[in-house]
Amino acid sequence: MAVPTSEKSKSRCLYWCGFASERNMNTKLDRIDGSTMTDSSTGTSRSTDEMIARSNQRSPGTLVGLLGIEIVEVGDNSISGRLPLRPELLAPNGYLHAGTVVTFADTMSGYGCWNQIPDGATGFTTIELKTNFLGTARSGTLACTATLRHGGRSTQIWDAEVADEQGKVIALFRCTQMILYPKA
Question: Other CB atoms closer than 10 Å to residue 86's CB: what's the count?
């Protein structure tokens, strides 16, 4: 597993993964090598496994936690997660609810956006999304990988694929995230 390495993503990733406080977003990395990140000002080092664990700790008490979405991998311009299916995530007809799939893909894209947010930005919001459903699932675990397609200062575009346990893609997703900055 790799970690975000672009300059614009370093400080936000440091905050998201527990290195920096929200007030100190200028913490610099001494080393970033795909398996660990080291903060040169404190000497603190975290493995990518630890970063993933800290990201997953943010989920309880939110929709992400309620659904059971788990981050499993963080890459330079991508993020992957899993979602174990259970009856509550199905529609009354017994098939996977479309809202479950959209929420899963949007969540992975949002976590990815947070890791790639430009310096000076305070957050983001989804301003457009589209999903094409290619299949369904009734049980097992879904996988989703979201990939950054455009990383600008005012918007980001993320594509995500949701697949079943056999690797069959059941949904293609694209969203546009608007980057938020403090009011002047």
Answer: 10
Own/partner pairs for 118-121, CB < 8 Å, 24+ apart?
118/8, 118/153, 118/179, 119/8, 119/11, 119/12, 119/25, 120/181, 120/182, 121/12, 121/179, 121/180, 121/181
65: CB partners within 8 A, 6+ apart? 59
Per residue in 52-97, pLDDT (tens digit) is 877 788 788 889 999 999 999 988 799 999 999 999 999 999 999 9
Q: Is the pTM of this model over 0.85?
A: no
**Alpha-carbon separation of residue 6 from 16, 38, 170, 181 (angstroms):** 15, 15, 31, 19
Tell which residue, 153, 159, 177, has the closest CA to residue 8.
153
pLDDT in tens, 135-180: 999 999 999 999 999 999 999 999 999 999 999 999 999 999 999 9
Domains of the chain: 7-180 (3.10.129.10)
